C-alpha cells in the first residue's frame, strides 16, 4: 500500500473511485472538479490517494474551515474501490489527514457536512461502509439533517404576489451588478457562511440569485445552482427579520424553482433543511434523504 497526496493527473482515477463509492448520488466530472479545486479552501496537503498493487484504489479529501471562529477539520469526500476494502486504505489516509488537520489547528473532525461547498450534509446511512468506518475512527453521531425533494411540474408564477409587496415598498427581482454590493453586505452581516455559494450563483448565466429590496437595500435573497453543478440544487436563502411574515420567502423560493423548471429539471433538491414545514407548505416538498452528522474531538 502506498499513500500519497493527490495531483491533477489522478482526476480520472479518483472520479472512478468516487462514482463507484456513491451509488446513491450523481457524481459527474464537473461536480468532482467543483469539490476539489472549485473549493476556495482546497488543501493539497489533506487530499490523498491510496495505491494497491499499482492501482489507484482509494481517495480521501480533507480540509480545515474556520467556522465563525472555530476551526473544524473535515473529510469532504472519500471512497475505496469495493474490491480493495478492509485492507486499511481508508484508515491509512484518515490518519494522515487527521494529523495534518490538527497541525492546522482543528479541534474537532466531521464527515461530509462541509459548509460552503459539500456533496451531502452528513453520511447517508445507506452508505453502511462509511458509517462503519466513522465508528472505527472514533466519530460519534450528534444530530441528523435531511434533504427535501420538490417536483417542478406546476405553475410557479409570483407576479400577483409581487405586485402586493410593491404596495409595501418591497421589490423582488433577479440580482445583478446594481444590487450585488448591497446583497453581499446583507449576507456578510446576517448569513456570512453563505457568501461563497452566492458568489458562485452570480457567475451563472443568468445570475441564479433573486433578491427582495426596500428602497436600494437588499433584505432577502434566494439562490440556486450554487452547489453540485447540474443537479437542481436550491439554496441558500435568507430573509431579514423585518421582512419575515410578509410572504417574501415564498416568492423568492418559487422564483428559483421556476428557473430550475425552465432549465429542464424535473425536481429541485432542497438540502440541509431547517424549516421542513415551510417547504412542505409552499412547494409540496417531501423529505427525500436523511443524513447522520458525526464528529470526533481531536483537541489536545
How many distinct beta strands? 12
In helices, the fraction of residues equals 25-40%
Shape: elongated
For the residues shown, what is the average pLDDT? 96
Radius of gyration: 20 Å
- Based on secondary structure, the structural category is alpha+beta
Count of individual helical segments:
9
Our estimate of the beta-strand percent is: 25-35%
Overall tally of structural domains: 2
CATH topology of the largest domain: Aminopeptidase
The major pleated sheet works out as: 8 strands, mixed
The order of strands across the largest sheet is 1-2-3-4-5-12-6-11
Distance between the termini: 29 Å
CATH superfamily of the largest domain: Gcn5-related N-acetyltransferase (GNAT)
Helices and strands, in order, run as: EHHEEEHEHEHEHHEEEHEHE
- The CATH architecture of the largest domain can be named as 3-Layer(aba) Sandwich
Poorly predicted runs = none
Q: Kindly provide the name of the CATH class of the largest domain.
A: Alpha Beta
